[in-house]
Input
Amino acid sequence: MPLKPFFILFCLIFPQSLFAQELKTFKVNPGEKVYEVITPKDRYAYPDFISGIVQFKNDRIGGSRMNYNALLPGIEFIDQNDDTLTLDNLETIRYVVMANDTFFVEKAAMQQIVTDGKIRLARSRVIMISNHQRIGAMGLPTDASVDAFSTLSSSGNPLKSLVAKEILTFKEHVTFYFGNKFGQFKQASKKNLVSQFGNNRKEITAYLEENKVNFFSEEDMRKLFGFLSKL
Output
């Protein structure tokens, strides 16, 4: 889908906590539609599509009604014909702003939680398929675990009409990222922190040795951000 300034989508500056802290699991039984089980309240960042602005890397600006869909995962927008489309060509986008929130779109759609102007802390929330079970000869489920979590294809958004033939289990996943003032992010981990902030290798290493840091805990990531911002 070619990007046009009129249809645009999402930038991530999230001062408030929009997403639920407790991660959810969704079970879709055979014959049920994925979109009916995982309701708009769970899959969207906002109750309704809201006005948003996209800032492109070539300094163009576009706008439309937008929302973040964690099931795709990606940004959806309403076009001139009132069709719901998915924002693509993400490599051309610097960031997207909806309400008071900013999303950066690099390898993932990342919601900025806090920034001091030099360092950014962001999170990505997605709903992914984690397991599927076939129905056996006696009508009982048979385990058939997926080796790794995989996001369903969003091409043409087939999820809207997808009906499960097996028992499908979806889970929420939240990943945290640290970025610089240019909006370049790396997933939060000891290795990446040392790589990003190499001039403070000793201080970061000492902090991680003295503190039991869970890189999937927002509380721990906020504390780590506070430490990094003082270096």
Q: What stands out?
A: Residues 189-231 form one domain. Residues 218-229 form the longest helix (12 residues). The chain is about 15% helix and 40% strand.
